[in-house]
Amino acid sequence: MSLDSTQTAPFPIPANIFAETVTEVEHYTDRLFRFRMTRPASFRFRSGEFVMIGLPNAEKPVFRAYSIASPSWDEELEFYSIKVPDGPLTEHLQKIKAGDTVLMRKKSTGTLVVDALLPGKRLYMLSTGTGVAPFASLMRDPETYEKFEKVVLLHGCREKAELAYGEQLVAQTLADPLVGESAQGRLEHYTCVTREEHPRQMRITDAMTSGRVFADLGLPPLDPAEDRVMICGSVPMLHDCRALCEAAGMTEGANNAPGSFVVERAFVD
Ligand code: A2P
Asked: Which of 16, 90, 209, 237 is at a distance of 20 to 30 A from 153, taking alpha carbons?
């Protein structure tokens, strides 16, 4: 349920913004946390999209793009966030607790949606760090399994502890009453760690260009006729993953012109 904004914020809230109530917060490491909040009844989005999030702590709140990590059918909204030291939003956002108010602009958008991809056989979701968030939404959406035979989530992090959110989500997805059965045997989770000892101590891009990921999962190399790719991570990661797709002969898609791969644009411009 959406709260009356005048009761929860010291400043009047514009008509294009929802004021929602935090229901749950979980910290994974000193850099990463997730939170859930109420979902306004009128708010619709496509799994994989992002919204602008802020706090009611200033007359002109700072807003940042956040991928919605919950699927479009969920009755609440979930977000996964990094804690940026002295970050204008996250230095405050990391302190939120259940009952606090979070602001959200009413319009969601984004390119990491299945509509921006041509039909295909396998969907590769390439992520680093908090870039796993839109895939947390997509991996729990039944439409993903209607459109693809195989769904492969690649997640690269600096340290093992940073993989916890993705691991928790995949386990939840496989046990989920709505999508669990569809996901079993079809959702693959492939993790890499770069700054700590790990069986796959490498970047996800290296796991792909070396062919290691395909060999480990028993899948053919990237094939523009059958494979589709979604990419979300830091700007250098987006750049390298795009190059990797282009080298495989893939073309970039958009909402109005579906292609064989899509790149998150939320943090690029
Ligand atoms: P590395 O430790 O070699 O920098 P971050 O938290 O900085 O976003 O990094 C998350 C993960 O993404 C880290 O494992 C990091 O590896 C990796 N990474 C950084 N840049 C790239 C890139 N250009 N391509 C693929 N992975 C990258």
From this structure: 90
Substitution candidate for ligand 1 out of 31, 155, 160, 194 with most atoms within 8 A of CB: 194
- Calculate mean pLDDT across residues 255-264: 95
Tell me the CATH number at 123. Answer: 3.40.50.80
Residue nearest to ligand 1 atom 12, measured at CA: 128
* 40 and 159 inside one domain: no
Q: What is the pLDDT of residues 102-156, one digit of tens each?
A: 999 999 999 999 999 999 999 999 999 999 999 999 999 999 999 999 999 999 9
Atom of ligand 1 nearest to the CA of 193: 14
Instruction: Show contacts of 71-76: CB within 8 Å, 24+ apart.
Output: 71/47, 71/137, 71/138, 71/140, 71/141, 72/44, 72/45, 72/46, 72/47, 72/137, 72/141, 73/141, 73/178, 74/39, 74/140, 75/39, 76/23, 76/36, 76/37, 76/38, 76/39
147 lies in the same domain as 216: yes
Answer yes or no: pTM beyond 0.85. yes
- Determine which residue's CA is closest to atom 11 belonging to ligand 1: 157
Ligand 1 neighbours, Cβ below 6 Å, are 128-129, 156-158, 194-195, 203-205, 234, 236-237, 240
- Domain span at residue 63? 17-105
